[in-house]
Amino acid sequence: MPTHPRAGTPALPEDLVDVGALLAAYHDRHPDAGEPAQRVAFGTSGHRGSSLRTTFNDDHIAATSQAICEYRAHQGTGGPLFIGRDTHALSEPAWVTAIEVFQANGVHVLADADDAFTPTPAVSHAILTHNSGRTGGRADGVVVTPSHNPPADGGFKYNPPDGGPADTDATSWIADRANALLADGLAGVRRTSLDRAGLHRHDFLGAYVADLPSVVDLEAIRSAGVRIGADPLGGASVAYWGAIAERHGLDLTVVNPDVDPQFGFMTLDGDGKIRMDCSSPHAMASLVARRGEFRIATGNDADSDRHGIVTADGLMNPNHFLAVAIGYLFGHRPGWSPDAGVGKTAVSSSMIDRVTADLGRELVETPVGFKWFVPGLLDGTIGFGGEESAGASFLRTDGSVWTTDKDGIILALLASEITAVTGATPSERYEELTARFGEPAYARTDVACSPEDKAKLGKLAVDDVSATELAGEKITDRLTSAPGNGAALGGLKVVTDGGWFAARPSGTEDVYKVYAESFHGPEHLARIQQEAQEVVRAALA
Q1: Is 193 a catalytic site residue?
Q2: pLDDT digit string (tens) for 187-219?
Q3: Listed residue (125, 158, 322, 148) closest to 236, CA to CA
Q4: Of 51, 65, 91, 147, catalytic
């Protein structure tokens, strides 16, 4: 996809969403349960859509919330439900809808003590803290967020008592029940009017910020005087960064404290849209331009489950920082089990494989989706789990669980810890890795295809792949299931000694995504990308 000519430039008035129209549509538009595009559908991070497209409206959230009430009752989850929301315009009304349904069903809801925004990791942290040592009365949670999606979007995700993203069994059950309720005109939905004064509260910010020294060496950062610039990108971490600086005495500046549901302060992403993607050099252009003011600058998306790391060299590729973080953590966390492994998704860089092998640790390669790391982070058998899309979490220094959902805040702080302890920035550390293990070239592209071919791609078998070579190298592995846990990849991965590609159908568009990497340079990468389409075409035929 070509880069938009205005990518990386400030948003203009004509780029901004009409918030009034967005909020009116949330209440006024009603989905057609017989229209597949307007039904509840949980992706890897919950249900997402826009009220203007009749894909994220009051009916959707009321039905989904009722389904969650019934699901948690079915599972015997009798403790409180922690609920948070981000700064997207649709998050506030959806938060209200959800609480009205939860309260009518007798669920003990815990909302933010200051009625403020709540990052995804703070909700996961609260769930796990409450459930620690408990066998009954266990808590779960909901985060109202579409993550880094554009301002017109809304999102709604459920985290069960393990604190992480719900698995497919849970989300399928919830979506099916929600759609049945939609088809029945919401007849089975219980609902009451929100009583804010009577709403039970939880200090998400205070509990999370106070506990940070158990997972990141803040003393080292403070002692080294690392100058930090933190950009919440108008998201839910906006109050957290100031509190972190004040409580822990860090030389940290919140470079943009503004919250605006239009996100009018953003620079446009690569496709010309406003998107709070902290891994995109276009969306992060404003912070990158200020990199000379700080030793480390960081960004988070709207719900703070992703991280972007900026050094004097610019914005780091997410894959590069994951490799650096893994190499550092497993050498500076003596409290972790010597058997703790490294979790990565199948489309993340093979630099992680090489670093992990050098550490003598087990590599746990999974399909796309942070949910696959939840059991390992929960019991300490995975020390670090990360995705190529800049989402990761890791254990406390004593080897116990911190969060089982992605935590962009601790990853951002880790960049400063690495700098403080080693004297080198993460980008400088990555140069050391490439000197040892080679320098990979990595890219992701979209390829147009029919809905029928998308369905076929998601169900390919290894025997469907007849190719024996890829870009001049012998194919050493063909994968349709993840080697780390045997779960279906929902696509195909083809591996050689010097590179690989993975092809996965898009969940929202008539394209499939090709992730590719080469340790032989950009020209070889281009060959892999080209031949990947030929391999997929032949397999589908």
Answers
A1: no
A2: 999 999 998 888 999 999 999 999 999 999 999
A3: 148
A4: 147
